[in-house]
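Dear Dr. H.,

I hope your travels went smoothly. While you were away I took the liberty of generating a structure for the chain from your last submission, since the lab meeting agenda had it listed for discussion. I wanted you to have the full record in hand beforehand rather than looking at slides cold. The sequence, exactly as received, is reproduced here:
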Amino acid sequence: MEGRHEAGIVIGELAAGFEADGDDYQAIMVKALADRLAESFAEYAHLRARRDWFEPDANPDVSDLHAERFRGIRPAFGYPASPDHSGKPAMLDLLGSDRTGITLTESFAMLPAASVSGLIFAHPQSRYFTVGRIGRDQAEDYARRRGVSLAQAEKWLSPNLSYDPR
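The corresponding predicted structure, in token form, is as follows:
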């Protein structure tokens, strides 16, 4: 596997071993710890990016991070500001995921499971936001702009639709 997501392989094997032994609790704990470590590393990478690229003196304490009192944001595909996961293939292609071993499932979940991704916006006025309920006219426009069928766009956006797409 030469340098390809060894941590993901180890976590998967460790969790599978606990599951094979009937120890679901330990399997869940291993996966939860892996998820927390991945999120922590993403937060660290965001801090490093802020320091290296646009906020050299950044030194927020935990309360500032929780209250989102810092410059820039790190939204991710599938989160409230960007509910459609379908942008992940292009992002991973740009990042050279073929070298890292990160792959996507058919529904755009990242593998290994404890992987995280995000986009960093440095503008001082950047703020997190949530996409509200999406009307049919908006879904139609989105489908047209993405060059996909309305049914496909509705599938991607289903949690945010304000109507029943039947």
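Two observations you may find useful: Residues 6-131 form a domain with the Cobalamin-dependent Methionine Synthase; domain 1 fold (CATH 3.10.196.10). The radius of gyration is 19 Å.

With kind regards,
E. W.
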